[in-house]
Design a protein that fits this description.
This protein is an alpha+beta fold. The chain has a single domain, classed as 2-Layer Sandwich (YaeB-like fold). Helix content is 38%, strand content 32%. It has helices spanning 7-16, 19-31, 90-107; strands at 2-5, 37-38, 46-52, 56-68, 73-81. A five-stranded mixed beta sheet has the order 1-5-4-3-2, with helices on both faces.
């Protein structure tokens, strides 16, 4: 499985996960790429609830990603703590879909 990060995801990553925690997330997604719930109104973006130490899944992180089965690729777009934001707004969903479309075109996937 190949993992590709948006610039936004890459910038935010060190604030939320250590290298070891990020490796665990990648390992989990490699084994269970369909684990996240499909986000309504985005086509096929998924939201994964990811537990962090002392918070568990309910109070942990939300990881927004896209899984392209044919290319065996996961594109990581966004991550945030649940207490920072409850749900994505319609505008945020639209922006994430636009970001994904641009990345897919650039990567020729």
């Amino acid at each position: 499985m190949e993992f590709i990060e948006s610039e936004y995801f890459s910038r935010r990553l060190p604030r939320y996960l250590s290298d070891e925690e990020y490796s665990a997330l990648q390992w989990f997604l490699a084994l269970h790429p369909a684990a996240g719930d499909v986000i309504a109104g985005t086509g096929s973006l998924r939201k994964l609830r990811w537990g962090i130490e002392g918070k568990g899944k309910r109070g942990g992180l939300r990881v927004i990603y896209y899984w392209q089965r044919a290319a065996e690729t996961v594109i990581l777009l966004e991550l945030y703590r649940k207490n920072e934001r409850t749900d994505l707004t319609r505008t945020e969903r639209h922006q994430l879909r636009g970001l994904l479309d641009g990345m897919l075109k650039e990567l020729k996937l």
